[in-house]
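ok trying this again, last paste got cut off
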Amino acid sequence: MRPYLTLALAVASELTGTTALKYADGFSNPLPSAVVVATYLAAFYLLSATLQELPVGLVYATWAAAGIVGAAVIGAVAFDEPVDAAGLVGIGLIVAGVAVLNLLSETYAPAH
């Protein structure tokens, strides 16, 4: 599987688990709790598969940033959690930082 597709699936799994965690109510609600466990396991499996092809710094920075941004969006849309101007600036800086790592950094440039 292509490493960025695997990474995207890892992020999607982690975000599904994080959303279910909100509904798990301290793991007292069985179905969302099971979803948390299953999707976090899937996320870490997919993350480990990604690490077979891409460097750990790049993978973890991208995964963490996508998780932060995705969780903020899910919080705002699904749970009516506010995001103020400072929050938007912070999210923009996270996205910019990961874009620099992925697109401009020679440290993480793919081998030719």
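PB: full thing came through this time. The chain has a mean pLDDT of 93.
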